[in-house]
Fold each of these.
Amino acid sequence: MAIGLSEEQGMLLDTAREFCRDRSAIPAVRALLQSESGFDAQVWQEIAELGWLGVAVGEAHGGSGLGMGSAIPIVECMGKRLLSTPYITTVLVAEALQRAQSHALCERHLPAIVGGQIATLALLESGDWGEDTIELTATDAGGDLQLAGSKTQVAYAVQAELFLVSATYQNEARLLLVPASALGEGAVRRQTNIDETRRSSRVDFTGATVSSDSLLSGDATAIIRDLRLLGALLYAAEAAGSTAACMDLTVDYLKTRKQFGHLIGSYQSLKHPMVEVLCDMDNARSFVYHAATLVSEASLDEDAESACRMAKAQASEALKFAADRAVQFHGGMGFTYECDAQLYIRRAQWSQQVFGDAYHHRKRLASLLLD
C-alpha cells in the first residue's frame, strides 16, 4: 500500500488542525444546529482567504494546483471538529470543470469559486447513490436550454450560487452549470437530515433556462463516475476525523466516570471495544491517505477506484461503531440530545449513506478485485 504525505499536505494538516480547533468548538457546532444555513459565513470566507478552495484548482485560475489529494487533510480536520461547510461540494464542482476541460467555463467560474462562491452538486433524483438513471432533461429552446425535472439531496442548495447538474440532452448524459438566478420561486425545498449539522434540499429545475454554452464538454459519464469516487473519498476523510473525535470524547468520559468506586475505564469490557475503535480509525486513515496518494487529475484507474471504495467502506463503519459505543458507554445520558455522543451517531448515520455505504462499495470492489 503506497502512502505519501507531501510537505504541502503536512503544512495544510497543521494549519487546518489549528484553524478548525479554534473556529469549531462543540458549543459553536451546537449554536449552528438550528440556523438556516448550518454554517458560519465568516468562517467560510476565512476558508476562502486561506486558499483552501483552490488547493486542487490550477494556478492559471487562482488556485495552488496541489491536486485533490491535498484537500484530504483539510476535510479530515473539519470532520474531527464537526465543522460543516459547503467545502466538499464546492471543490467537487471545481474538479468537474477541470476534468471536463471546458476552458471557457473554467475561466468564467473557477476564480469565483476559489474566491468563496458556493457551488454544489445536483446528481441524485431517487436519493439512492447507487442509481444511475437521469430523468432530468435539457431541451433546445431558441438557442438556450430549458430544463425539466428535479434533484434531491442537493447540499447547501439554499446558499449555493452555482449548481452542477446531470441531465439527459439529445439522448446522452451531460453535465451543465445552472446559476441560482435561473431557478423559479420556491424551487428549493429544504429536506430534514438526521445529522443536523448538514443542510440539503430538493431542487426543482423545471422551467429553468440556461445558455447552451453552460454544457460541460468531455465524457459526462466518466466525469460523474470520478466525482462519485472522489466524493466518497472526501467524505471518508471527514468520517475518519469524526471517528477520532468520537473516540477522544468517549475515552475522556471513561477516565472520569466512576461506578461502584472504580473508574469505568478500568473495566476490560469497555477497554477492548475502545481498542477496536482505535484500530478501525487507524485503518480508515490508512485507506484514506492511500487513496489520496493515487488520485490525480487524470481519470481514475482501477487502483484509484479500489482505494476510494475501500476508504469509504472502512471509514463509514469505523464512525458507525465508534459513535454506537460512545452512546452506549455514556449510559442513559448517551441517549439524550444534550450528550455530545448524539452528534456523532447522527453524523455516522448520515455519512455512511452519502456517496454510497459500505455494502455499496464492497459490492463493486468484488468485481474489481475478484473477477
Note: The chain has a mean pLDDT of 93.
Amino acid sequence: MRPSDLTAASWRKSSYSNQDGGACVEVSDDFDGVVPVRDSKAPQGPVLMFPATGWAAFVTGVKDGGLTPR
C-alpha cells in the first residue's frame, strides 16, 4: 500500500487514549518507512505522516517519561 492511499489503511487508537475518547490519536502500521497519524475524533480530517524512525523515537520518549504534556 502506498502512503498516498489511506482509504484501505487499518487504524489503531493510542493506548494512552482515555475512556471518554478525548486526546486520542490513531496510527496505521500498514506502511513501510512512514507512520500516518490522525485525530480519532476527525477520521476524515488531515493525516500527518512521520518517518518511522522519528515516530519510534517519539514513542520511546513518551514511554520513558522524557516527553510530558503541558
Note: Residues 12-61 form one domain.
Amino acid sequence: MPSVVDFGRTSSDYSKHRQGFPDAFFTRLAREGVLRSGLRAVDVGSGTGTVARGLARHGCAVTATDISANMLSAARQLASDAALSMDFREASAESTGLPANAFDLVTAGQCWHWFDRPAAAREALRLLAPGGRLVIAHLDWLQLPGNVVEATEALMSAFNPDPPDHARFGCGVGLYPQWLRDVTDAGFTPLETFSFDVLLPYTHESWRGRCRASALVAATLPPADVERFDAAHARLLSERFPHDVLDIPHRVFALLATRP
C-alpha cells in the first residue's frame, strides 16, 4: 500500500462525484460580508476547484492553487464547462509564489488538515491585504448509528486498516477548534466560526464514486484493491441500503479570520 496520499490518482472520480460545498455555504459567506463581487481571491488546496468555482460564480477574481497537476487539469475543465474564468497555479498552500498584500480573500476548503498548518496560516497572512479575510472550511459526512456512512467507513477500514495518519477519519463531529490556534498564532484577529448540517443526495453510483475518491480508497490503495473495495461497496449498498437515492448527512464548519 502506498504510504503517501495522492489525490491526483482520484481526479476523475473526484471531479465527477464529489459534490463540494452546498450553495448554502456561499450564501452564508455572502451574508457574513465575507463574499462579494469584485474581491481578489486565492483558493489554496483547490483540488478540482469546487470552492474556486463558487467564488467565481459570485463575481470574485479567483486564483486557484494546488500541488497536483491532475487535479488542476480537472479543475480547468470544470471551470471551462461552467464558462468561468480563473487563474490556476501549481503551488503549495505554504508557498504559493503569489504577491504579498495583494488579495482580499484566501479560502481553504476541505484541505487544511493536509497542510503544514502554521506555515499555511502565515502564507495566508502574507497574501492578504490589511482587513482581508481567511476562510478555512470543511464538509464532513456524518457517521450516525446504522446509517450508510457508518457501514461505508467500516468497509473502508476493513480494506485499509492502517492508512497514513492524515488519511484517517476526522474528529467525528465535523468541528475543528484546533484551527483557531493555527490562525491566532499567525496573527489573525478577530475570529468567527459557524456550522450547519445539510443532507446531500447521492445515487448508489455517485456514492460509490465519492467513496472511491476518498483518502482511504483510491488515494492510497493499489488499483486492484480499489476494484475489490468498490465491488464490496456495491454489494453492501444493494443489500442494506437499496433506495435509489441516499440522503447523506453532512456538517459544514467554517472559520473566518481577519488580517489586522
Note: The chain has one domain: 7-258.
